[in-house]
Amino acid sequence: MEKITVEGIVLNETNYGETSKILNVLTKDYGYISIMSKGCRVLKSKLRGISMKLALASFTINYKENGISLLLEGNTIDSLKYILTDFKKMNYAMYLTDITKSILKDYFNPDIYVILKNALIKINNSFNPLLITNIVEIKYLDFLGVKPNFTSCLGCGSEDILTFDLKLGGSVCSNCYQDTYLFEKNTLKLLNLFQSVDIQKIDKLNINNLKVIQEINNFISEYYETYTGLYLKDKTKFEVF
Questions:
Q1: Same domain, 128 and 49
Q2: Are residues 116 and 218 in the same domain?
Q3: Distances (CA, A) of 182 to 1, 16, 49, 112
Q4: Are 168 and 73 part of one and the same domain?
Q5: Which of 2, 181, 183, 192 lies in the 20 to 30 Å Cα band around 39?
Q6: Are 118 and 23 found together in one domain?
Q7: Is the predicted pLDDT of residue 229 greater than 80, yes or no?
Q8: Of residues 167, 211, 204, 171, the one with CA closest to residue 187
Q9: In the predicted model, is pLDDT for residue 237 greater than 90?
Q10: The model's pTM
């Protein structure tokens, strides 16, 4: 085993024995790894605080590449305390960890870690959790190999976009338009923005147009179902809390 220190987020945890846990951690540099946290369920354990779901921390471990690594010590990077004490924020955070695990089944890219980390921090800091989640969903499409093109017509290449045709899987101009749903202009602009925006640099995020919000979520759900095979949870259920 090699002793290393990695930055990571605990995506899920499983009790092991009477006092320990096995942590499944998404790390910045080593991808998705399993870590044994011995004795962390004992109240006085120094490992207790970083051995729980959503812990964002640096972990010093004896690393085993194709097995379970051993946690030696660690330090919290962000406690995400406002997520842990807010049911609505927690729902969104759990949703994001679930969809991230679905992406990681077939593919890892360090950018996935960065996106999830920054999204959780923004939600913890009271940015609109639905919109932050939408941004993550759009960004993850790139890792699934089905990144939508919102800037040029799939028929002729024109940049004068009228709408997005979900059946055809691309944007269309007025000349190539066939009978399909007409999205609001602001909906398409925001979807395009979500692809490129750096979540860490967002300092303001607010959309007051309910139709645009609904269109964004309908687009994401239908696009995922049609082109990825992943069926997303109904996020409107999170909004009642």
A1: no
A2: yes
A3: 57, 53, 49, 31
A4: no
A5: 2
A6: no
A7: yes
A8: 211
A9: no
A10: 0.94
